[in-house]
Amino acid sequence: MDGRNGVPVQENVGIAPYTTMRVGGTVRWLYRPESEDALARLVASLAADGVPYFVVGGASNLLFRDEAFPGAVVLTGGVRELSAADGCITASCGVTLSALARFALDEGQAGFAFAYGIPGTVGGGAYMNAGAYGGEISDVFVRAVCADRSGRRVVLEKGDMAFGYRRSVLQENGLTLLHAVFAGRDGDREAIRAEMERNLAARREKQPLEYPSCGSAFKRPPGQYAGALIEHAGLKGFSVGGAQVSEKHAGFVINRGGATAVDVRELLERVRTAVHDDAGVWLEPEIRVLEY
User: Fold this and answer.
1) Which of 71, 126, 171, 228 has CB 3.0 to 4.6 Å from 52, enough for a Cys bridge?
2) Is 92 a catalytic residue?
3) What is the pLDDT of residues 121-158, one digit of tens each?
């Protein structure tokens, strides 16, 4: 298990167990850095050697292909420092959004309850401007420290992030987020706790958490809901191979068992076409399909 820049590596590893959809083929190299410095050095080394790579947090909205990826996947789950000072919370990229919400609760900071239960990390959350229940990352974001492909640190203030609905500048600039700084507002801990528990209960009641999925499969069209459009098109329970439109929530595509990436991609396209035929709306996938 010789590594690169001090980070151990596994070779020819199946990626499916590391994704929430539980699909995908093998990856040539799998790295798990345990500090921000190690992550920055590793990315710089991979880039310098021309090795294709993906930096992955919870892999909760990523779809790897069934074919082998001839490059490196860098898992950030070991990079998970959390601290608070001067009314701000600093969280490394691998901190889960649920852990961030719990830490904010401990600090008496309101504004983070929306993140409780989102199956992603700070890095992925900032990348996608993750949100739920009326809140999103941009609401509490202050700044981020990122690494470019040479390992140089780059500071992005909130205004630099170009946040939008499920988007940020990180989707375009190739930077790797190392940590982010957040600030909520003073709140009552019991009220915050109650809001977190309500959000989690709503997730359990309405979402198919008993099956692997990537969360919401499609972005919300302006003024409408993807799930309602899919249900209106009669697609609840519709399946391709092991991939299925959830019967519990039509906005979710689940892995009923044995689904492949091809199944998921075909199902997404068939849903898009059917909804367009039914309602004249082209749904935009929220699931990020990795191309290689």
Assistant:
1) 71
2) no
3) 999 999 999 999 999 999 999 999 999 999 999 999 99
* 190 labelled catalytic: no
DSSP code of residue 218: B
The Cα 93–Cα 125 span in angstroms is: 9
Under CATH, which number does the domain 9-75 receive?
Answer: 3.30.43.10
Return the structure tokens found at 90.
């600093």
CATH code assigned to 210-289: 3.90.78.10
- List, in order, residues 6 or more apart from 131 with CB less than 8 Å away: 114, 137, 166
- Annotated catalytic residue 239: no
Question: CA-to-CA distance for 138 and 86, rounded, in angstroms?
Answer: 19
List, in sequence order, every beta strand (DSSP E) within the chain. 9-14, 26-31, 53-56, 62-63, 69-75, 82-85, 88-92, 109-110, 131-132, 135-136, 141-147, 153-157, 176-182, 185-186, 213-216, 239-240, 243-245, 252-255, 288-289
Interval 89-98 mean pLDDT = 98
State pLDDT tens for residues 191-219: 999 999 999 999 999 999 999 999 999 99
Q: What is the per-residue DSSP string for 56-95?
A: ESS-SSEE--SSPEEEEEEE-TT---EEEETTEEEEETTS
pTM: 0.93
Residue in 168, 213, 216, 246 annotated catalytic = 216
Chain mean pLDDT for the chain = 96
**What are the sequence ranges of the domains in the chain?**
9-75, 82-191, 210-289
Of 286, 100, 78, 77, nearest in space to 180 by CA? 100
The CA dihedral of 34, 35, 38, 41, to the nearest 10 degrees, is 140
Whether 278 has a pLDDT exceeding 60, the answer reads yes
Q: Which of 32, 143, 166, 220 is catalytic?
A: 166
How far apart are the C-alpha atoms of 275 and 269, rounded to whole Å?
10
Question: Could you tell me how many residues make up the chain?
Answer: 292
